[in-house]
Each structure stands twice: as structure tokens, then as C-alpha cells.
Amino acid sequence: MGLMKKLTEQQIKFAQLLVVNEGRKTPTECAIEAGYAEESAYVRASELRNPNRYPLVVKYINEIREEYQRKYEVTYHNHISELARLRDGARENKSWSAANNAEIARGKAAGLYIEQKIIHHTKQSDSKDPNEWLQKMKKIVEDNKGLIEADFTEITNT
């Protein structure tokens, strides 16, 4: 059997189904949907993904995957633009919460927000004086000045 020079319609359909449904359908299910017999679909799906048996099919599958990766690539520009589109759509529908969330997500992606959490674990013997904890946090920041930045001017004791 010589190597094929052109893909069949079934092979094209299999390759497209395989890439589009990756993670949702098995290669066998894609082969069946592409029109291969159920009895031999498992073997056919395996063969079609074998570069020694069907190099054109494997090459086509890789081309489709690369195209999808380029199309759906997450870049800063794409991400910010999509969030703006979602925000604008939410505004048009007067979905203020969704619009607000999209705008906050845009700000986070742009680095305008920095989330920080301080988890306070104590034992019975530990002091519960907030000023003492503030001093401990200041010391940690001072000891790690090259790694973190902190501004304690806005910290209030409650």
C-alpha cells in the first residue's frame, strides 16, 4: 500500500472532529462520527493518528491544532479586549454587576490591583495586641525589603 497524496473527506472530518472535540470525545467517537464503521473505529482512529501509516492525516491534525492555538491564544491584548467587550455587553444589558466584575478583571490583568491576604494564627500564649502584630509585620517587610513592598500608612487598627 503506497502513501496517499490527498486526504479523503472522511479523514478531513475525523481530523477536524478530533481537534475541535479534544478532551470531550474520544478518538474512537470522532472516527464513528466521521463515518467509519463502529466495529473498526477504535483501530481506525489509532491508525489515522499514526504518522507512519497516515502522515498526511497527522500533518493535517497538527495544522488544525496550531491554527486553533493561534486563534485562541491568550495574550494581554486579547484578554483586555475581550474583557472590555464583555463589560460593554453587560452595560448594554444593564447587568451592572457583570460589567463591574469585567472591569475589575481588566484592572487586575493590567496590574492595577494587588491582592494580599494576611492570615493570623494564634495560640493561647500569643499576644492579641494588634499593635504587636503590626510591629511583627513591619519587621517581616523590613527583613524582606528586596522581595516585597508594603505601605503601612493605611493600616488601621480596629
What keyword list fits this structure?
mainly alpha, 158 residues, elongated
Question: What would you say about this model in short?
Answer:
The chain is mostly helical and 158 residues long. It has helices at 9-20, 27-34, 41-48, 55-71, 76-92, 96-109, 130-143.
Description:
The protein is mainly α. Among the domains are: 9-71; 76-109. Helices cover 57% and strands 0% of the residues. It has 7 helices and no strands. Helix 1 (9-20) packs parallel to helix 4 (55-71). It is elongated, with a radius of gyration of 28 Å.
What oligomeric state do these chains adopt?
Answer: single chain
- Evaluate the radius of gyration: 28 Å
Helix content: 55-70%
| Number of strand segments | 0
Strand percentage lies at under 5%
| Category from helices, strands and their pairing | mainly alpha
- Biggest pleated-sheet summary: none
* Helix-strand pattern: HHHHHHH
Q: How far apart are the termini?
A: 81 Å
* Overall residue-averaged pLDDT value: 83
Query: In terms of per-residue confidence, which ranges show pLDDT below 50 for 5 or more consecutive residues?
Result: none
Give me the number of helical elements.
7
Form type: elongated
SSE inventory with pairings:
Layout: H1 9-20, H2 27-34, H3 41-48, H4 55-71, H5 76-92, H6 96-109, H7 130-143
Helix pairs in contact: 1-2, 1-4, 2-3, 5-6
